Amino acid sequence: MMQPITSPTLLLNKKVCKANLHRMVEKTSAHDLVLKPHMKTHQSETIGEWIKEAGIKAVTVSSIEMARYFYKAGWKDITIAFPANPSQSHDLNELAADCNITVLINSSSVAKSLANKLTQPINAYIEIDTGADRTGIPSDRTSKINDLIAVIQHTQMLQWIGFYSHPGHSYQARSEEDISKVHQSVLSQFQALREKFSSLSDEFEICVGDTPSCSVADSFTGIDAISPGNFVFYDLMQTQIGSCEISDIAVVMACPVVDRYPQRNEIVIHGGAIHFSKEQITQNGVVHFGQLLTPSNDHWELLDPPAYLTSLSQEHGIISCNPTDINNYTIGDTVYIAPVHSCLTANIMERYKLTEGQTIDLMK
Amino acid sequence: MMQPITSPTLLLNKKVCKANLHRMVEKTSAHDLVLKPHMKTHQSETIGEWIKEAGIKAVTVSSIEMARYFYKAGWKDITIAFPANPSQSHDLNELAADCNITVLINSSSVAKSLANKLTQPINAYIEIDTGADRTGIPSDRTSKINDLIAVIQHTQMLQWIGFYSHPGHSYQARSEEDISKVHQSVLSQFQALREKFSSLSDEFEICVGDTPSCSVADSFTGIDAISPGNFVFYDLMQTQIGSCEISDIAVVMACPVVDRYPQRNEIVIHGGAIHFSKEQITQNGVVHFGQLLTPSNDHWELLDPPAYLTSLSQEHGIISCNPTDINNYTIGDTVYIAPVHSCLTANIMERYKLTEGQTIDLMK
Which GO biological-process labels does this protein carry (chains A, B) (predicted)? Predict the structure, then answer.
């Protein structure tokens, strides 16, 4: 982990990442679940290969572009977990000619518009809003769900295969107990839906996909598949939610110290909003964009007492130090910082550097 | 402006951008200032050509990579407005072999370390902290400044050419009057420095570069050069500060409506944190990531009553509508949204689409 760096570098600890992956694979095996990992977190063909090697056959993505990238990398079963956009039917047809594509359909108008433009069969999940209030039909609106199933089943090219939900309200949790409450509510809602619609098809599938619930839950009754994404990397937000430990975080930013201001108890790093993203979090009353780590051979640990990345401009980052610690930093040093939200940090960087030294590109 | 789009698209109104550019060029001519525009806002060779055509010879960038990109695009006078990083001396030497390179030096240790590694002569500004508390030596620490000038002048390869400051505290302004107060303070500080160090060299230069002050100030006494960046595009943050009008904003995100939730008075767009960035702003008591616009042929105008992009996940954006307006939106529509911070939105997108239709790439 002590590779010399000259500019902001996204370090990836392969061992921690693979351990996270294998823990989730083992959990899904134990609960007879299909794991369709969400690739939006890492956006990397190479990490996709690690996932393939773990025996995974189907993946989840968040856009057509990402579906195309992973199709080219050899994936043949891809869920685009985003409300289907009929104006992208040309791309969907191209992909579906050689790949099992599943989209989310939330309204009859989209189902009809899309079906009219499809020349290839495509699977459709109906997205259920289980409480996140982002997208999907609320689970208690069974009449609307019923009508939509009928519309989809009436089309030639769309095949209704079940329900999908991203219980994003688990991100409001601050303990395993909070996460469990969200998860139990999701299980109950799907139990009710399964009973309601059991006569329609024996085979429909229920897929849910938030990293907090998938990480801590020990019951998945009524669920067939899960599609968490963040779990391969985790981050500070997930530790705050209660999904993981700091030692499970697989990606950190390594940044050079470029300036120091002892009178302000601050050091300045090369590492700004275009490296970390501006995702912020509040911990111990401090609003910040990252927290300093101590490297070890196996994993990273939080610096004690804590130090935070408290300000970001485009390329500059300011770290507020403890008065006793400011003299530990010299211009030219490398500092290691846990990102608040690893998905956004990975998206904004162009590549990973493995702690062993090799470089891995992201989709661009 | 009514080009059909199928995915999040960063639209650039060339006419507004060029008008912003020419207004700043005229101002610098009138005040006998050198304009060294900061290219970090647009990161585009093509927009660089528009700047060249306006008679500009020198530019400012925020990293070595950006310096290299614009050097390849034909620029021969480049200031890297970031604390110099001696570990990047190899890249500096390469660039400086055929380009007039200026860096910021804030400490004697960096000056010495860098000078030891340079094989090409490089110019150095000393960065002055005029109140932003980010980087630079506070202007009243004249003894430290004096020592640093001496250290730089003692090296063979570093040539001290003057002082640089980014008065980023102007971003706290909320009116032209607030901006003027910051600007007057900056002018006073540099006036004192010029008097203090006038015996050292007749020729040293003072360069300042924040878009708010450069946009609204009408006096630049004692200043030789300015390096604003954001002014070519402007954005919502600049309208809040008081630097510009909405009609001066040159870039907007065009996003497809992919879902609608009349019961929540919300529409969902394809356009998330990986398109807008997570820069947030508070206006009219609403924390948001963008504000809806109405397109016209010449420029964009704010929707009245206002509607805001109030939530972002990776690819989803949620727009809170007025109850009376929700029925104006249909799935498949395109909405136009002013970004909070155009530099970060441009950085995160891969290309601009001109409102006339052509595509312009960004540095990647």
Answer: D-serine catabolic process
